[in-house]
Amino acid sequence: MSANKILIVEDEAVVSLDISRRLEKMGYEVMGRLASGEEAIELIQQERPDLVLMDINLQGEMDGIETATKLYKDHNLPVIYLTAYAGQSTLERAKESKPYGYILKPFKERELHAAIEIAISRHETE
Question: What's the whole-model pTM score?
Answer without folding.
Answer: 0.95
